[in-house]
């Protein structure tokens, strides 16, 4: 299978090149030039498969024969061995035909483990012993922690994680610091998570170290999407053998899972609804409902992993809406990078509206939903999952079809909040005391980041 850039001018590459990449040479994101498609009979035949074998069926067409079948099967089995639930991603019922897909049973208790564990094994497979690589990305805690954990044993790989000074909860930052080793580097940015992502994108487009491979640990790397397509096949097979239509409510903590759901539907999975649930930082909600996407100042909420407004994978979705027209995507994204604002054509927006619903959930609603789920379903969830569960309950199109909310974080990551059911306190952020030799950057200091990387 060949991979092309969303911006149209980079040459097609193979799966190996995509794995060992940050971005395409023209600044776009790699996407498969065509998608595998399965009929309902083929999908339903996977109902009895364990998670790793299902992952093989879904992922192997994208690999294009570059990893022989026994090796890929072993790789996927190894990926999920470190998850602490026999089902890997169990479903929990929270109401009539309402379910939560628990994606937090990996080593760092976040859905990011699925992509990070797969990426680490793919990079190890394709990277020669003489090569050096930097796994670089932006994090508000969970993505960077998953990358550090996954690449812990890779001697020729360094993890560089940029995080916003005031955008990471103290307990998650402490976990990030505690997990890092001598070949990992944390870079504190005096700005937002969006600023961190922008810095990473700029440095990947003009990589300053010739003899070191830059690889993104964010879902700008296609592996970040690929690992998550499996979620939707797994859920649908558990709830209806892959034949019964299923709806999904996806908290907007990244666009990767939303885009992965869209890809699963295009591959033949019976998905009847996708609800994008956001908190008060509602950039995706405004895009879907008003065709008005823009970056803006973010506010702090009960679900800090969703406190940003820059969604890289939206570019891949726009490429699909414009029938793979790279030149149009290039024009749209260049205008967005200049102005911070984006609107698409009316035809494309109406198509997006047919595919997605969305709902913005306020913190007061999240607190109420946390209490409701605990009292009425005996279930403790984190605020991010509560956001998705409420949006799913209020905006599902069918009571007959199951609605599944993606639970991307373990409740224990919000244990203090769940105990107190209180708003996020600024005092907690002030109380952190860390002893880590980290780099500090201002939000626009691309030259400083380049100098640091050359010194690794």
From TrEMBL:
Domain Threonine synthase N-terminal positions: 3-80
Domain Tryptophan synthase beta chain-like PALP: 92-327
UniProt KW Translocase keyword: no
Keyword match Membrane: no
UniProt-listed InterPro entries: Thr_synth_N (IPR029144), Thr_synth_N_sf (IPR037158), Threonine_Synthase (IPR051166), TrpB-like_PALP (IPR001926), TrpB-like_PALP_sf (IPR036052)
Cofactor requirements of the protein: pyridoxal 5'-phosphate
Record keywords: Pyridoxal phosphate
Protein name from the UniProt record: Threonine synthase
Organism annotation: Pseudomonas urmiensis
Lineage: Bacteria, Pseudomonadati, Pseudomonadota, Gammaproteobacteria, Pseudomonadales
